[in-house]
Structures are given as C-alpha cells and as structure tokens.
Amino acid sequence: MMVQPSSWVESGIQLSAVRNLYLFKFTPELQSRLDQLTEKKKADMLSSIEEAELTGILELDRIFTLINAKIIAQS
Question: pLDDT tens for residues 4-26?
C-alpha cells in the first residue's frame, strides 16, 4: 500500500531557484515529515499507515530526482 505521491502536489512541493534553474523540492513541512518517518522506520516503530505515507513520499523523491536531473542535463 502507498499514499499516492500526487496527494502532496498542492501542499508539499516548491520550486527553488538554483543557478538560474528551477528545481522541484519538498516544502520544509514535507521534508520534516520525511525525516520523522525515516527515524521511526529506523527504530522499527512505523504503523502501516505511516509505512504507506513514507513509501509515497520516497516515490515522489525518486520522481523529483529524475526530473531535476533532466532539467540540469538540458541546461
């Protein structure tokens, strides 16, 4: 099970200017949530709902990594 990455499009994403490029990044709130969930996973304390949330955030992170790499490569 996974929380759909698209559920954070409205509130968890920002564009950041980096050397005249605009790259996708998490908002501070979503980054903080990712950090919290990661720490709970390391401690083996995630609920199934939190596991689904973490899986969705990590998928969104992989998507952003790919998109940002393409933006950088095309510049």
Answer: 888 887 889 999 999 899 999 99
**Spatial contact of 5 and 63, defined as CB atoms under 8 Å apart:** yes
Q: Using DSSP bridges, classify how beta strands 21-26 and 13-18 pair: parallel, antiparallel or unpaired.
A: antiparallel
Q: The pTM is what?
A: 0.88
- Three-state SS at 59: helix
State both tokens at 22.
């605009």
CA neighbor of 71 nearest in space, from 15, 6, 3: 15
Beta-bridge mates of residue 53: none
Residues pairing with 21 in the sheet: 18
CA 74, distance to chain mean position in Å, is: 22
The H or E element that residue 40 is part of is helix 28-42
Region of residue 13 (phi > 0: left; psi between -120 and 50: alpha; otherwise: beta): beta
